[in-house]
Amino acid sequence: PKVCVLGSGSGGNSTVLTHAGRSLLIDAGFGPRTTTQRLAQAGLTLSDIRVICVTHFDTDHFRKTWVRAMVDLGITLRCHRWHLSDLRRVQNNQQLLAAGLVETFDESPFEVWPGLRAATIRLQHDGQGTIGYRFDTESFAVGLATDLGHAPESLCAGSCHVPEHSP
To answer: Is residue 105 within 8 Å of 78, Cβ to Cβ?
Structure first.
């Protein structure tokens, strides 16, 4: 397993997680060209990305320029069901929906791909809030939460819905 922060700040946020020969982005706050350059430094290409898990749809977390690239490369977008209204405000979002590349989740843990599970926690931020993720395999766990201002007690207490096989 490998985790690499491609960038974090008001100019863009994106982290790549690689496990079992597959990679996902947590947020896509840089355009595909910039992300391609940053992925190269991690030894990856854009075609290695299978999934983008979005914390929320502020432009520094998801750029509209990703829509075409996601459709062309068959990259799945994972977002919480209450973020669908925000996704619908993203220019050309209907291309992702029409291609069947949008998968929503709720508060239950979900399998990203065989051997990689995600648990989530809803966190305060602007209107809809943001999602914190915990990704688990049999050998590691990694969590990511953004735009918090401060870490709420519920996050520190590990209250996100943890998959049963996790320690």
So the answer is: yes
